[in-house]
Specification:
Layout: E1 5-6, H1 36-52, E2 53-58, E3 64-69, E4 86-87, H2 99-107, E5 113-114, E6 130-135, E7 177-189, E8 191-197, E9 209-218, E10 225-233, H3 235-238, E11 244-250, E12 259-260, E13 268-269, E14 291-299, E15 306-310, E16 314-319, E17 331-341, E18 369-377, E19 383-384, E20 390-393, E21 400-404, E22 412-416
Parallel strand pairs: 5-14
Antiparallel strand pairs: 1-4, 2-3, 3-6, 7-17, 7-20, 8-14, 8-18, 9-10, 9-17, 10-11, 11-12, 13-16, 14-15, 15-16, 18-19, 18-22, 21-22
């Protein structure tokens, strides 16, 4: 695919990073006070957002989609991107795959159904030159310490990834997070891809979340850089418990940089077809069809931009290399799997927030979190399964993982769990 670029005009300063969040949401009690400065700042951002909206669409599921001028999107409020030129498409076809792997995939198609997150388009579409931005509902409350913190994961320190060690205490793992992942490291990675089965796991509290994703990471554990894409149930960002498409980035382990979707400057969206944060339909259900989304994060060798591709052919946009230090080059590790965030992970009672679909890994029936057709890209442009992988998890009694690599054409990774259960009180 040939790349093309367009010069952007001057950004609309102070673009609405919060994308229409309403100040007084249902999560704020009568006795809670919001600093006047914060209220004024958010109101100012809302006003700027409205002035950049070309068209407004009401989705069947209740979402409001604003079609925003592509040159006035939030990304360009980032100091490093003030003079950025938009790359409208990757400079090459990223889906170059090993011949044997491609043949195996074509010969062994299963019953998984790929799907698109475009229910809102039944109400219309965003024209070329604009991007769809999901507006948050009124019930989303402003609970972050500052406007800049909204949409960012809470920072945490943890030791470097190692192989599974069931004797390692939770206090040695990443604080307030529990993961069940498959990872590869030891090489230089410029791409990660996977077919992620889509579920709607239970999330117990509004300040917790459950995600399934592919990711690339670099840097030390206390200051890592990361780009991620997948699906999430995240009430604190989206205001409900629907399963939604997301992208995420950070350049400092989420201490001061990074966010979901377009809730802060950084990600440059180019697609007018997919709205980040939109609800995904349909969803997998036990004993039903296993629906999945295909996500691919890859680096353009000519521009250094980290692109996100959805469903094999829709290029959503990219993170420019100017946002990063380590990820100006390639990544040190590629990962697939699930993550749960909660303050109730390190001691009883454990959170009931589920990972995957809330079931422990089940490769026989497929009734659990699952990622198939996992691929990485190293120094060449060819996609392949990694030569070496390892399973890592924090709380095997709460969330487990199982890698299936023997006697199967294409390895598969199963993960998940219910959180609190008799083995995980």
């Amino acid at each position: 695919m040939a790349g093309s670029c367009c010069s952007r005009g001057l950004p609309l300063k102070g673009m609405a990073i919060l994308l229409g969040i309403i100040i007084f949401g249902s999560g704020i009690g009568e006795g809670d006070l919001i600093p006047g400065k914060k209220i004024l700042e958010v109101r100012k951002k809302i006003k700027h957002l409205e002035s950049s909206t070309v068209r407004r669409l009401q989705s069947e599921d209740g979402d409001i989609i604003d079609c925003i001028d592509i040159y006035k999107q939030p990304a360009f409020d980032h100091p490093a991107l003030r003079n950025h030129t938009i790359q409208m498409a990757p400079s090459y076809d990223p889906n170059i795959e090993e011949a044997t792997a491609k043949a195996n995939r074509l010969q062994n198609q299963d019953s998984s159904m790929s799907l698109a997150s475009r229910l809102w388009q039944k109400s219309g579409s965003c024209r070329k030159g604009t991007i769809p931005v999901r507006r948050l509902h009124q019930k989303v409350s402003l609970k972050t310490n500052s406007v800049e913190d909204y949409g960012r994961k809470k920072p945490s320190s943890y030791p470097p990834l190692t192989h599974i060690n069931e004797e390692i205490g939770s206090n040695l793992q990443q604080s307030n997070r529990s993961v069940a992942i498959l990872l590869t490291e030891g090489y230089s990675y410029s791409g990660v891809k996977g077919d992620i089965q889509v579920w709607n796991p239970h999330v117990e509290s509004d300040d917790e979340y459950s995600t399934s994703q592919v990711s690339l990471k670099s840097g030390p554990y206390y200051d890592f850089e990361s780009v991620e894409a997948g699906w999430a149930v995240n009430p604190s960002v989206y205001g409900d418990r629907k399963t939604r498409l997301f992208v995420y980035w950070t350049a400092d382990a989420s201490k001061k940089t990074g966010c979901f979707d377009l809730t802060c400057p950084g990600f440059v969206q180019t697609s007018s077809e997919i709205a980040l944060g939109a609800a995904i339909y349909p969803l997998s259900v036990p004993s039903g069809l296993p629906y999945q989304i295909t996500l691919f994060i890859f680096k353009d060798p000519n521009t250094g931009n980290w692109w996100v591709q959805y469903g094999e052919k829709i290029n959503l946009g990219y993170w420019p290399p100017d946002l990063f230090a380590s990820l100006r080059g390639n990544a040190e590790t590629a990962q697939w799997g699930g993550e749960v965030y909660s303050s109730k992970l390190e001691r009883p009672p454990h959170t009931r927030t589920a990972m995957g679909n809330g079931q422990f890994p089940d490769y026989i029936s497929g009734d659990s979190g699952c990622i198939k057709r996992m691929r990485i890209r190293e120094n060449s442009l060819v996609l392949k399964f990694p030569e070496w992988v390892s399973t890592y998890l924090d709380e095997y009694r709460c969330y487990n993982a199982e890698y299936i690599g023997d006697y199967i054409e294409d390895p598969e990774f199963y993960y998940g769990g219910p959180g609190q259960n008799p083995m995980c009180p």
